[in-house]
Structures are given as structure tokens and as C-alpha cells.
């Protein structure tokens, strides 16, 4: 008889922090089921959330070089050799790491004397206030920077509820789906002052043109919160410094050995290529960067481990292991601790 289970977890698709119920049959995720008691999304999920379990379908199962699959012993020996050879080592992390993994990564970077950073679409490190997502519907004015209604639809749902309650919705940015739902439109943050922000106004942003934009937002007089594109960017930021477009380019230019964890920098518009002596990619599934890596280390996904994510609004949530990882795959912490 097939074993059918439904287990609760946290969606890894963006920084909103929605809840999910994962349907598993004989230990294999097959779909999701609404979790109506979750305070953020109340049982509703966007397409990215509904498809999040599919990450296990295109996964890498064995360590490999450009030539062939290799054993874990050979992979660790090769990476150890390269770390000892190179003076300029960088670890490019991701907001997809758990808080616990980010803390371990910080220890790893200190141990092997590596620079560490992660890309956050020009959103800098800052003492961001904690926002109760349920309070969004009570603001009188909401300013959106970035295509939030399209990219973060469960948060967008709260914004549209506020609009139904009489809130004025203002969009700042290029033509997008969010613009067509807004009452007013501005092209850049230079126009922020004309929208007369105060304490009944909320600014939500999922990208900035440069790190100096945050000063305009902080000084506006409005409440504000980033909406990170990755599920635990706010949590990772407590341990690893965020990188802007220009900082990311410089970071890579100065590195001889680059160790990428759960990121795909070659997908970013700000980066055309990665020119380093040795490129290591630690990932669950194939991506553009893993296809050109000198060494690929396959790792577990969030369904296969325990940990915590801190969402964009400062709310930390636990997630628990639901399925077993393949025997040939290691957890991120297992891999990192080999070098600590």
C-alpha cells in the first residue's frame, strides 16, 4: 500500500514566507495542499509556491568535474587542494540558505580566510523594522518599488485589500503589471517627496537602483520594508554582507577561487561572465553557473533538512525535514564542516 502523508513547511520561493502543505507519496513530493491557518497566506499560494516541490525533479545527484562524476572523497580532496593553492578565495552565498547554514558559512569563511557575500538586488544591510503583514491592509497609502504585485502575489493580495479599503497605491518604476493596478505612478525615487509620505504610509520595495536609495526611503517619514526575492535573505544578512551590482562584479574580479552556494550568478543581468581560476558550485539542481563550474557539489533541498527562515518582515519560522535526500547527496552543513 502506498504511504500518503501531508506535511507543513515554509515556501522557499521568495521572502514573503508563506506556508505550504507538501503532499508526499512513498517519500516523493507530488504536490501541495493549502494550509489555511498560516497567518501570511491563509491557504493561498502563487504558482512559484505551488511548483516549489519540483526542485527535486531536476537535481544533481553526484559530485562532478567538467569531465566526469567523481566520489565525495575525490571532490573534497580536489577542493582542499585548490583552497590551499589559492590566496584569494570568495564564497558567494544565497538568501536560500537557512539561518543555521548562514552561521556555519560565516565560520567557514573565517576558517579558510575567504571573503563572503551574497547578492540582494541592491538592497543594503539595514536595521529594517518588523512589519505585521496583517497590518498592511490598514495603511492609507502604499508605495511599491518593483513589480511586487506580479512577483509577490500573496503580498500583493494584502496591498489590493488595502486599496479596497480606500488606500492610495503608488508605483515607482518601469512599466509593469503593478503599475496598471496603481492609482499613481512615478518613474524614480527622486519623485518620492511629492507623494507626501507620513506614518500612515508604507513603502515596500523588492529592488533598488543603488544602495543610496535606501536613504531616501528611511528619511521619507513612512514605514518601510524590503521584500526580498529569496526566502531567507533577511536572515542571511545577519551573518553575511549583501552585495550591490557593482560590489558583486568587484567581488568576483578580485577572486581566484569562487565557491558559489545555492546561487546562480550567471542568471543575473548585472553579470555577463565569471572569470576565475577555479569555480565551485554547491547546488540542488542544474543551473547556468553549474554548467560551467570546475567542480559541482550536490546538496539537499529545504524539504530534506531542518532549519529556520526569516522572512522579509522579520518573522522567523521553523521548517522540518519531510523527505530523505538521495544517499549520494550531502547536506550543506556536512559539506561546509569538512573545511572548518
Automatic annotation (TrEMBL):
Q: Which InterPro entries match?
A: Mopterin_OxRdtase, Mopterin_OxRdtase_4Fe-4S_dom, Prok_molybdopt-oxidoreductase
Gene3D superfamilies, from UniProt? 3.40.50.740, ADC-like domains, Dimethylsulfoxide Reductase, domain 2
Provide a GO biological process annotation. respiratory electron transport chain
Please give the superkingdom of this protein's source. Archaea
Q: Which GO terms describe its molecular function?
A: 4 iron, 4 sulfur cluster binding; metal ion binding; NADH dehydrogenase activity
Pfam families (UniProt xref)? Molybdop_Fe4S4, Molybdopterin
Keywords of the record, alphabetical order, are: 4Fe-4S, Iron, Iron-sulfur, Metal-binding, Oxidoreductase
Q: Name one GO cellular component term.
A: membrane
Q: Where is the 4Fe-4S Mo/W bis-MGD-type domain?
A: 4-60
List the protein's name.
Molybdopterin oxidoreductase Fe4S4 region
Native species: Methanothermus fervidus (strain ATCC 43054 / DSM 2088 / JCM 10308 / V24 S)
Amino acid at each position: 500500500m502506498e504511504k500518503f502523508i501531508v506535511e507543513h513547511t515554509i515556501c522557499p520561493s521568495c521572502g514573503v514566507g508563506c506556508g505550504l502543505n507538501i503532499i508526499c507519496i512513498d517519500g516523493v513530493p507530488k504536490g501541495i495542499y493549502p494550509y489555511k491557518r498560516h497567518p501570511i497566506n491563509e491557504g493561498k499560494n502563487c504558482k512559484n509556491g505551488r511548483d516549489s516541490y519540483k526542485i527535486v525533479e531536476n537535481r544533481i545527484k553526484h559530485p562532478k568535474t567538467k569531465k566526469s562524476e567523481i566520489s565525495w572523497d575525490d571532490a573534497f580532496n580536489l577542493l582542499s587542494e585548490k583552497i590551499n593553492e589559492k590566496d584569494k578565495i570568495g564564497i558567494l552565498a544565497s538568501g536560500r540558505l537557512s539561518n543555521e547554514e548562514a552561521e556555519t558559512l560565516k565560520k567557514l569563511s573565517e576558517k579558510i580566510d575567504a571573503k563572503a557575500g551574497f547578492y540582494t538586488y541592491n538592497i543594503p544591510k539595514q536595521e529594517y523594522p518588523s512589519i505585521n503583514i496583517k497590518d498592511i491592509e490598514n495603511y492609507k497609502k502604499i508605495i511599491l518599488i518593483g513589480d511586487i504585485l506580479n512577483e509577490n502575489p500573496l503580498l500583493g493580495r494584502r496591498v489590493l485589500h488595502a486599496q479596497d479599503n480606500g488606500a492610495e497605491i503608488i508605483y515607482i518604476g518601469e512599466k509593469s503589471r503593478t503599475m496598471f493596478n496603481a492609482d499613481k505612478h512615478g518613474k524614480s525615487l527622486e519623485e518620492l517627496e511629492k507623494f507626501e509620505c507620513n506614518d500612515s504610509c508604507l513603502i515596500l520595495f523588492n529592488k533598488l537602483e543603488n544602495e543610496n536609495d535606501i536613504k531616501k526611503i528611511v528619511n521619507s517619514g513612512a514605514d518601510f520594508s524590503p521584500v526580498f526575492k529569496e526566502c531567507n535573505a533577511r536572515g542571511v544578512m545577519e551573518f553575511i554582507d549583501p552585495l550591490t551590482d557593482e560590489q558583486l562584479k568587484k567581488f568576483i574580479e578580485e577572486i581566484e577561487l569562487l565557491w558559489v552556494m545555492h546561487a546562480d550568478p550567471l542568471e543575473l543581468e548585472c553579470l555577463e561572465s565569471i572569470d576565475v581560476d577555479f569555480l565551485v558550485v554547491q547546488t540542488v539542481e542544474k543551473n547556468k553557473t553549474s554548467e560551467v563550474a570546475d567542480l559541482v557539489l550536490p546538496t539537499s533541498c529545504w524539504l530534506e533538512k531542518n532549519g529556520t527562515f526569516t522572512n522579509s518582515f522579520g518573522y522567523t519560522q521553523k521548517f522540518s525535514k519531510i523527505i530523505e535526500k538521495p544517499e549520494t547527496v550531502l547536506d550543506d552543513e556536512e559539506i561546509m564542516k569538512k573545511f572548518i
